Amino acid sequence: MELAKLVRDIPDFPKPGIVFKDLTTLWREGDAFHEAINRMVEHYQDYDFDYIVGIEARGFIIGAPMAVLMGKGFIPVRKPGKLPGETISISYDLEYGSNQIEIHKDALKRGEKVIIVDDLLATGGTIIAATKLVEELGGSVQGIGFLMELEFLKGREQLKGYDVFSLLKE
Ligand code: AMP
Questions:
Q1: What is the C-alpha to C-alpha distance for residues 17 and 19, in angstroms, rounded to an integer?
Q2: CB neighbourhood size of 59 (10 A)
Q3: Distances in whole angstroms, Cα of residue 146 to Cα of each of 5, 82, 150, 166
Q4: pLDDT 10s per residue in the chain (170 long)?
Q5: Which domain holds residue 161?
Q6: I need a labelling partner for 166 at 20 to 30 A (CA). Which of 3, 35, 83, 130 fits?
Q7: Domain annotation covers residue 17
Q8: Does the residue 22 lie in any domain?
Q9: Is the CB of residue 116 less than 8 Å from the CB of residue 53?
Q10: Cα dist. 142→3, 71, 97, 114, 162 in Å?
């Protein structure tokens, strides 16, 4: 199945000059969504890990079904103020302004192995922040996975030393 054809381009969202890759048009097609998740699962089949870490909110749509299919636990990384327990947080810069994400302090024990997933790799700022949160808790990042990667933004260059996989590239 040509999954890439189901990704819709929305120009000038969320601001002028950005072409937003809208994955909702892929997720709404049952067969395509199923195939995309299955292919992610296949890729990580032989990896040794304990948890999938997903980044709010679109990373949940990829990470949760992967975790269920692989029989692993799911750990959410969320926007500030959403997680009810004690958290650690990290701020990171975006093109304009900054953002913050959090993880529960007791989500991981030292040495536990994770795969971190999000929907899309753009500049890499979000995923690097998530990686730092996991590592601050003593977690070990075995892989970083995306449904889609925008290669021209060179996010992968910021992730040297990590095992990075993306199902679709543009
Ligand atoms: P970044 O931190 O630049 O890698 O941006 C990653 C986050 O922003 C991802 O979670 C994506 O969901 C979202 N994102 C950034 N740029 C785009 C884009 N052009 N199309 C769709 N989503 C994007």
A1: 7
A2: 25
A3: 17, 23, 10, 5
A4: 899 999 999 999 999 999 999 999 999 999 999 999 999 999 999 999 999 999 999 999 999 999 999 999 999 999 999 999 999 999 998 866 899 999 999 999 999 999 999 999 999 999 999 999 999 999 999 999 999 999 999 999 999 999 999 999 99
A5: 45-169
A6: 83
A7: no
A8: no
A9: yes
A10: 26, 17, 30, 6, 8
Closest among 89, 85, 50 to 70, alpha carbons compared: 50
Report whether residue 18 contacts ligand 1, using a CB cutoff of 6 Å.
yes
Question: Does the beta carbon of 166 lie inside 6 Å of ligand 1?
Answer: no
- Six token digits for residue 21: 């890759």
The residue contributing the CA closest to ligand 1 atom 12 is: 120
* Cα 80 from Cα 103, distance rounded (Å): 9
What does pTM read for this prediction? 0.97
Q: Which residues lie closer than 8 Å to 131 by C-beta, 6 or more apart?
A: 116, 141, 144, 159, 162
Residue nearest to atom 18 of ligand 1 (CA): 20
